[in-house]
Design brief:
Oligomer: single chain
Helix content: 10-25%
GO molecular function: zinc ion binding
InterPro entries: Kinase-like_dom_sf (IPR011009), WD40/YVTN_repeat-like_dom_sf (IPR015943), WD40_PAC1 (IPR020472), WD40_repeat_dom_sf (IPR036322), WD40_rpt (IPR001680), WDR86-like (IPR044715), Znf-RING_euk (IPR027370), Znf_RING (IPR001841)
Number of domains: 4
Protein name: RING-type domain-containing protein
Strand content: 25-35%
Distance between the termini: 60 Å
Keywords: Metal-binding, Repeat, WD repeat, Zinc, Zinc-finger
Pfam family, one: WD40
Number of helices: 19
Length: about 800
């Protein structure tokens, strides 16, 4: 043998040390796998006298005296290459699962946004009678959150009012996720930045809320008291301190926003609010609404223009802004017009918008508060007085127009007394060059001097360089401000992202969430044939098998769901059903009289069973309630006499009886070499398939509380138990990870496939949950529900299709159709 063909010595799967028979002694576990003696000693043991195999993760018996009582793997030491044939390879030959519900977004996306979506009943909307007819199109509404806390609601997106023709009715959170996923990444980034702001002097943003009735997604923010402008119409020197404090607090709020990478770009009186202590706050919701008003004015004033704007058009826009009380820096306005290609061709491609852009609107707001309505009147008069003739050919002429407005403001004549010290810095703040303006900290210090003369001028904290982790963006130019309501279909092309009245246009804000959440629509087909309640479902050999109280088993084609054959012979209601693949594929059924029937599923199908046998009865006996099968050739029955019996599939002989449950054994599952049994006594017992010994008991942590287990489902390392009170419990590696109520009545049946969990029962609804998490925690998120016409008695998931049996004799198959 060549050296390249020599295999390495076998290693312990835990410590990866080579077995040598001395320091690393190989010990064989009951499952057949081997680990070294030292590692077996140190492995955690959750339950007495059991251990989880480090190779296949199956729970196996472990001797009380330790691993030295286990046999040595002598053959392994002699013929070590054969170990490679014993090791379990997870995922090998696994068939790729077919999703019943697929989604576009990732787990990280869901984790980021799920906590930012408010519960659907958290917000109540206040509608005035005059607004009721136009509720759905309103951009900014008022509402209440929790204990009558007043909030502002800003419309940010739309979604479908209902689930169209999809049978699966998606949950509120899923619909909001789909709506968010349908937004552009830039819009979501801005929402993320706004919701994340937790700075002093800035109103709170609680999150996102969806109005299911009208199909609107809102941004929910704190609603505070606004300005009463008439209070500032007749300011005296005695009011200087009050005005100065307001100005300082506005500067501080904007400086805090700068730390988050947010530039406001424009400001209005409505953006400044007060709390109960009359502290001034900047309202983020109002800032976005102000930005939308800017877009509205630009759209209205340039609607009919097919050429770049000149000085006269710019003057109209400025007048419109002033009448709305909007104060905007010149460079931000120029950028907005440039984005719409409304400026002349020699406009610079370089953006001048920076943090200094916020000095301008703050300066003008202070002037507005000092001068009252006279300030607005004077600004409008300044625009009208500037001669726009001859100012049509260059960007410089537009700047001249803007400069003329600021120069005509009579600051000296109006700001007398204590306000006089502010004149020079306010004039500098009006400079057209952003880099030549004072920074906000300079304006803050100047305003502070109206209140007090500081003893120390070392304000090192205010001079720190702004370097946030988030990307910077200007609210006045944000994508969220573009989402305004307009009537013109043409404007949708001019303003990308703007929502128009035509919902069929490509690029609309409204999204088909059902189409994004699943591939096509969830459809269904009825399968009728039983004469009584359906009790069980199984798939195998290209057929669907269904059992019923009518004592029959119907066989259905999986291609067209047509009825193919009927198994008859039971003298009592059929309670449980399963299909076993093998050299001789068979269907096994159990009835309420203790009968166990084995049917051949090889085509052509026969009317008589291959063999049958009966359980012994006593006065406590109530029939067979559950069936399971192991690779050892044993059929397991869960019975009304509180026991589990193992039978030989070949001849029906009784192998053993497993006792321990205190009530009816209602459900059985075999997975990873362990038999799980659920009972009306509220416990789950784990049994070894090799010797049928009890491994451990789950569900005894809450003595005195008995919740009957009606169904179990397992997939890989996850076990889910369903209870008669609508609860479920989720175990991973036999550790309880989650306990929660998901239905209002008893859960009669449950199915698990990967991350998808399906439950059904007395409330006549199939609930779809999504499982996520890791070894530390598990989340169970409600995806949607499928309303039914009757009690759901059985569920089966198979290759992207969900089969459901009902108490009204019907079977429905749900699938993704188009």
């Amino acid at each position: 043998m060549e050296a390249s063909e020599v295999m390495e010595a076998p290693e312990c799967p835990v410590c990866l040390q080579s077995f040598d028979g001395e320091s690393t002694v190989p010990r064989v576990l009951a499952c057949g796998h081997t680990a070294c003696e030292e590692c077996l000693t140190n492995l955690p043991k959750k339950f007495p006298d059991t251990i989880r195999c480090p190779a296949c993760t199956v729970l196996v018996k472990f001797p009380p005296q330790g691993p030295s009582a286990l046999p040595k793997n002598i053959d392994l030491l002699r013929l070590f290459p054969s170990i490679s044939q014993i090791k379990l390879e997870p995922g090998r030959n696994c068939k790729k699962a077919v999703e019943f519900v697929t989604r576009s977004w990732s787990d990280d996306f869901y984790a980021t946004w799920k906590d930012r979506i408010l519960v659907h009943d958290a917000v109540s909307v206040e509608i005035r009678e005059s607004e009721s007819s136009d509720f759905a199109s309103a951009s900014l509404l008022c509402g209440s959150l929790r204990d009558d806390l007043k909030v502002s609601l800003l419309r940010v997106a739309s979604f479908e009012h209902d689930d169209c023709d999809s049978v699966l009715k998606y949950s509120y959170v899923q619909r909001m996720m789909s709506c968010l996923w349908g937004m552009r990444e830039e819009e979501r980034d801005e929402l993320d930045a706004i919701i994340s702001v937790k700075q002093r002097g800035v109103s709170k943003v609680f999150g996102l809320w969806g109005d299911l009735k009208n199909g609107v997604l809102y941004l929910v923010g704190e609603k505070l008291t606004g300005f009463l402008l008439e209070e500032f119409d007749s300011l005296t020197e005695d009011d200087t301190s009050r005005l100065a404090i307001i100005g300082m607090q506005i500067c501080e709020a904007l400086l805090n926003l700068h730390k988050e990478g947010l530039i406001i770009g424009c400001l209005s009186v409505s953006c400044v609010k007060f709390d109960e202590f009359e502290n001034a706050y900047v309202d983020l919701i109002e800032l976005i609404e102000t930005g939308r008003n800017v877009y509205q004015i630009i759209v209205e004033e340039t609607r009919s223009l097919r050429k770049p704007v000149g000085a006269s058009e710019m003057g109209l826009i400025l007048v419109g802004l002033q009448r709305k009380g909007i104060l905007m820096s010149s460079e931000v306005l120029f950028e907005l017009l440039k984005e719409r290609n409304m400026l002349i061709k020699n406009a610079s491609s370089k953006s001048l918008v920076s943090y200094n852009s916020d000095v301008w609107p703050v300066c003008f707001l202070v002037l507005k508060l000092c001068l009252g309505e006279r300030f607005t009147e004077e600004l409008i008069e300044s625009v009208n007085c500037v001669d726009a003739k001859g100012c049509e050919e260059g960007i410089e002429d537009l700047l001249v127009l803007y400069a003329g407005i600021t120069e005509k403001l009579s600051l000296e004549s109006e700001l007398q007394g204590k306000f006089k010290s502010m004149v020079e810095i306010l004039r500098q703040c009006c400079c057209l060059d952003p880099q030549a303006r004072p920074v906000l900290t300079d304006l803050w210090k100047c305003i502070r001097e109206l209140v007090m003369k500081p003893r120390f001028n070392s304000m090192s904290g205010l001079h720190k360089t702004i370097s946030g982790k988030r990307k910077e963006f200007c609210l006045a130019r944000s994508e969220l401000c573009r989402l305004v309501e307009v009537d013109s279909k043409e404007l949708d092309e001019e303003l990308p992202g703007m929502k128009t009245g035509n919902e069929e246009e490509e690029g609309k804000v409204d999204i088909d969430f059902a189409g994004r959440l699943s591939e096509g629509k969830v459809k269904y087909k009825d399968m009728r044939g039983h004469q009584d309640s359906v009790t069980g479902l199984a798939v195998g050999g290209g057929f669907l098998f269904s059992s019923s109280y009518d004592r029959t088993i119907l066989i259905w084609s999986l291609k067209d769901f047509s009825h193919v054959h009927t198994f008859k012979g039971h003298q009592d209601k059929v309670m449980a059903l399963m299909h076993i693949e093998g050299t001789e594929p068979v269907c096994v059924s159990g009835d309420g009289g203790g009968g166990i029937f084995v049917w051949s599923t090889t085509f052509p199908l026969k009317e008589q069973p291959l063999r049958k046998w009966y359980e012994p009865k006593d006065w406590r006996y109530t029939g067979i309630h559950a069936l399971a099968y192991s690779e050892y050739g044993h059929v397991y029955t869960g019975s009304g006499d509180n026991t589990i019996k193992a039978w030989s599939l070949q001849d029906g002989s009784l192998v053993c009886t497993m006792s321990g449950h205190k009530s009816v054994v209602s459900t059985l599952v075999v997975v990873n070499g362990v038999l799980y049994s659920g009972s009306w006594d509220g416990t789950v017992r784990l049994w070894s398939l090799s010797d049928h010994s009890l491994l451990t008991v789950l569900g005894e942590e809450t003595p005195g509380i008995v919740r009957s287990i009606l169904s179990l489902a397992a997939d890989d390392q996850t076990l889910v138990a369903a209870y008669q009170n609508g609860d479920i419990q989720i175990w991973r590696d036999d550790t309880l990870m989650k306990s929660m109520q998901i239905q209002s009545g008893a859960i009669l049946t449950i199915a698990v496939n990967g991350k998808w969990l399906f439950t059904g029962g007395w409330d006549k609804t199939i609930n779809v949950q999504e499982l996520s998490g890791d070894e530390i925690s598990v989340d169970c998120n409600h995806v949607g529900s499928i309303p039914g016409s009757s009690v759901i008695t059985s569920l089966l998931y198979w290759e992207g299709k969900l089969f459901a049996g009902f108490a009204d004799k019907t079977i429905k198959v749900y699938y993704c159709g188009h």
